[in-house]
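To assess whether the prediction recovers the assembly geometry, we first specified each molecular entity separately, as shown.
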Amino acid sequence: MISTFEPLWGSLNSHGWAIAIVTDKSDQRGPAPHSAVPVLQVSGLAKTYVGAPLPALDGLSLEVHRGEILGLLGPNGAGKTTAISIMNTLLRPTAGQVMICGIDAVRYPNRVRALFGSVPQEIALFERLSAAENLSYFGRMHGLKGARLKAAVEKGLHVAGLTARAAEQVGTFSGGMKRRANLVAGILHQPPLLFLDEPTVGIDAQSRNLILESLMVLRDQGTAMVYTTHYMEEARQLCSRVAIIDHGRRLALGSPRTLIDQSPGCEDLGDLYLRLTGRQLRD
Amino acid sequence: MLFKFWFTLLRDLRLLGRDRSGLLLLFVMPAALVVVITLVQDNVFKDQDGTRLTGLIIDQDGGPVALDVVDRLERIQLLTLVRAIDGRPPEESWGRVAVQEGAYRFALVLPEGLSAALQERIEADIAHMFDGTADDSAGSGLSPDLRLYFDPTMTGGYRSAVSGALNQALAATQAQLRMQALERALNQRIAQLNEALEGLAAGAESPGMQSIPQIVLSSTPSSMVGIVETTPLSAARAILPTAVQQNVPAWALFGMFFIAVPLAGGLIRERQQGIADRLRTMPVPPLVLLAGKLCAYVSVCLVQFFMILLVGMWLLPRLGTSALALGNDYGALLLVVLCSALAATGFGVMLGTLARTYEQATTVGPIAVVIAAALGGLMVPVFAMPAGMQALSRISPLAWGHDAFMELFVRGGDLDAVAANLGALLLMFAATLIVSMIAAHRRLNHL
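The predicted structure of the complete assembly is given in tokenized form:
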């Protein structure tokens, strides 16, 4: 199936994220990137909200390398959203460090924002703008202009299967179409790192398949991804490694196959997940 | 950064342009308010050819005093008097019910014996004057009172106008009667004196004595001293405070502040749909996004205001009102509009930041604007409010804006005259943005 797709972002294949960094003037003040450096390095990340009795994150450490998809799994309230919010500079941690392409994201949030894309769980698109207008706007906010912007929008619409509906307002789209447009809006600028928060929730099988295939293409082209989901099969199929977290702590980290093999009696990732996080309901 | 600002501005204009209910709220609602309220209030502000109060005359007297009073009342343009129903004079009991039911705004009962009693009283007064005796009939010989019934819905101003007109007519009638009685009494004395003089002349056989001529004391039909109403400004700059001058800036301002509703709604939607968070992860400073949004909404405010000015200058005169006069200082006018737009958009940003839901913003926003408009003198002039409300009106941003417009449009003021209002509006803009930033910071950090 993947072979039926043309490469998403040809320029990424040839240049990679390292070149993207040194061509960004704002990053010349930060530490020099190095190809051996993980795209994302998180160490000792902690976050305690004011008034909360327990920390939402408690010493989380992770690394994500080029061309790797790290699945972040955990029940509701485990700390996934807090972790992603800190990694994508929306929140400041109480303690710990986040390095994106070798740049301290906590100290220099403005410098790293050009280096990642973010695909939120919500359909973060303007409903009264068309698909093309949405993509053009978010592309511009990422600094794309002129022919580069036009090409990125056209390619994004093609990837999302929305070329024929490009001029229609997003509000008129089905859930699957919105999800596909939501994904593309986060990857228009070909970032080396992508944060995806449950990007396939509540959509039809065809749209889910298209999104997953698109992500695999991006992975193969070198994009590093942090991916949260509640679908274990999706995580097994897509992720190079998974981190299972609960109560703000990392309970397991490794490839799905390795983790299952290391846990006697667990037939699949779902079994392992329930063994580690328990069967009690999390509301 | 400039092009990110520019495309954020364009994005918001595009979004607003596709929001039909928002466009209705921003353009049609204030324009309709201006037209309807101006037409409704037009007569209230007009000096002539305006409102006429129809009243019922119940003449139980039928004498000259009643006729004279009614005749004088009929000369007052404010009043239309009805003396007969189906060719017959109305009964007091019927008239009272008709006024209570609102068929007439008032009914005046001229009681039976009014003319006779008043004339008798005046004759007695004159006689006492000539006799040099005290008027011991005071209190016992009073004329019967006139009775005035008012429609219960009639406001104090109109009641005062009718009462004043009646008092004026009564005073003039009594003065005329008094003069006529005095004239008769004086001429009677003169005749007696002439007879006495003729007797003296005949006895003294001195033909040179002349008789005293009769006196004519005609009452002056109109006041000997007139009143000329004028403005403190030169005639060329004098602009009457018409319904157009009051309502066009008032409701244009009201409409501008209503921009807070779609603005706050847009901010809440962006927050709830994750668009705000998505934008915050992009390499664009939040202030650039905010500035783009504010500029879009401020420009809509400017278009909205000048559209309503066109209504006042072009449409309303075609519907029979006077045309809006803009005063002389167009630069100051533009600044007042701009500062009002900034204050309105600042309020919208604060509303959108503080409100947790779209429903909260769309409920609290309009109510706050209506209260501020009422306090600001957009519905009832501030000077007509009770003292406490007048003090409260000073905290209404719509009062600052409206006062500035009235200063320019009616009082012929300039930039100096509206500087304090401009400062207050800008201060509000700054304060609302600071409050919004603090609230947003607290929310983002879960404080």
